[in-house]
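[Q] Does anyone have a clean structure-token version of this?
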Amino acid sequence: MLEVEAIDTFYGRSQVLFGMNLAIAAGEVVTLMGRNGMGKTTTIRSIMGLTPAARGKIRFRGEDIRSLPSYRVAKVGLGLVPEGRQIFPNLSVKENLIATAANRNGASQPWTYERVVELFPRLAERANNMGNQLSGGEQQMLAVGRALMTNPHLLILDEATEGLAPLIRLEIWNCLERLKQTGQSILVVDKNVEALTRLANRHYVIEKGRVVWQGDSEALRAAPDIRHRYLGI
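[A] Here you go.
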């Protein structure tokens, strides 16, 4: 579904990604792991066209998207839950959700407002509240729901549970597990290695803008040296 091949990405004259590679098949849940500042968010921004890669290839469902502007990347079926949530503060919960509603890809059972609030009942309770009246956890649920309302082929979450209370984190992980069971393809960034190894099919570990390890959850559990060297604090 998604192929990222040898991309180099810069902020001005500072290079952040050095030949970055990753791939996601349809129906897979894949993680991008690494300490802060190693290039995880930049990789996502490059995929989404927000910080375009200077070199390399990014293909989505066979289409070259590396040079596309971000709005066209979204239209081909990538849905982003950005770091910091970035919901619309002066729109209600319901307005935040229906503002992004689209089924451009012709899903037979598209995500609708009703389906999203069934997934996150708390959003139904807060339907008329403004975005800036929500807790951090409720904002994250809204950000996930907003991305789902675009009916993406691939859902991307940057820092899926950062700054959330433990019970809310659990709710987000349970939500992602339910999405996985429906066959939703997901790319997720988070610091909770245990939760990620329970959820995901495969993992990429990056260091200074390069992939230094990749494998499945069983292999990652069996590699404490990798976890200590690249993921430990």
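[Q] Thanks! Anything notable?
[A] The two ends are 33 Å apart (CA to CA).
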